[in-house]
Predict the structure.
Amino acid sequence: MTIIMHDLAGADPAVRFSPYCWRIRFALAHKGLPVETIPWRFTDKAAIAFSGQERVPVIRDGGTVVSDSWAIAAYLETEYRAPALFGGALALAHARFVNAWADSVLLGGIARLILSDIHDMIDPGDRAYFRQSREARFGTTLEDTQAGRETRVAAFRETLAPLRLVLRAQPWFGGAAPSYADAIIAGTLMWPRCSSRFAVLADDDVIAAWFERMLDLYGGLGRSAVRA
Amino acid sequence: MTIIMHDLAGADPAVRFSPYCWRIRFALAHKGLPVETIPWRFTDKAAIAFSGQERVPVIRDGGTVVSDSWAIAAYLETEYRAPALFGGALALAHARFVNAWADSVLLGGIARLILSDIHDMIDPGDRAYFRQSREARFGTTLEDTQAGRETRVAAFRETLAPLRLVLRAQPWFGGAAPSYADAIIAGTLMWPRCSSRFAVLADDDVIAAWFERMLDLYGGLGRSAVRA
């Protein structure tokens, strides 16, 4: 049975840009599981009320509903064993650090480069909610969060040093082949790719080379994604 | 056969403070492997020339010599299967990100809090080498690297956010039990613990609570370590 996933969409419903939803799109593709996505907007809480919470991704797999990207990835690994996203309890535990780093350092750093761009590409009905919630979180205006980004991007790129150290030692964050660790980082990078035209990575970065390989995986799932 | 390990020592040979050597001390204890450590100083390159390189840790296990903490951990996992440090190729691949983060963000951050303290506790014969190499690496004097640390430590502690996110979800970086990921982080934190009296962690930090538990493991290996 095809898995159904509520997926954050921009003003153009074809533009899907949530970093958490993209982690799961990659995870589903990794498992070879077909998915039907339903475009969803920030303010459309009613549409996912059946999940008992207010955020996407939410998946419905037959009679099972799972929300939260980490919980969904763990669910997929339990229900659909191969190919492995984690491959065991220790690999899952270690991937939590990758997820935690992506949720704090990577997401926070990217947010300060593209938040105003996101505001401009989301549905007009979402904009007041987005501005209010993000300005409260970041303590400044959306416009100010990304001001000076051409200069500040250098400092952001320095925070990615741990990714580079790994990619100099192995081709994927999962080692010889991609794993959910790759889905976490690539999913997070799909966020700026699909919502903004600002280049968060330098072209000659080893991370950019790895991301290009990720874009080509799964029949070019990432590369063919519609950009705002 | 007891494993022999060259281990960085301070002016007091009982003080062992290398973050890389401590990772392996924890890893050996995790495997239940006895070790005989040989105190080593930065400038004693001749003593480890047999390893074909100039840094510790170096272990000698019967006829096998292995250097570099990551390579040693991988060697121990292959030679001595249980209890697992990694528990499979994917867990090892994911732990590389923990190692990379510890080597860049964590080590770099701690260095800027304690480098001058380290200079003062190492062997007088090591001090000129240490000052020259570290001042070249950090582009300033040892004294300046740790100047203003009482104020700057707050920003350092913020960089540890990913560790906190993990420890709020699971008791150890290895999940339900410690793994090499725990050895990496705890080993790195043994560096300031043994070489300085400056508190890099706040007492009420969830990371401090986890580190206290690590200090008690393996018969109190970490807690009983001699501090400078």
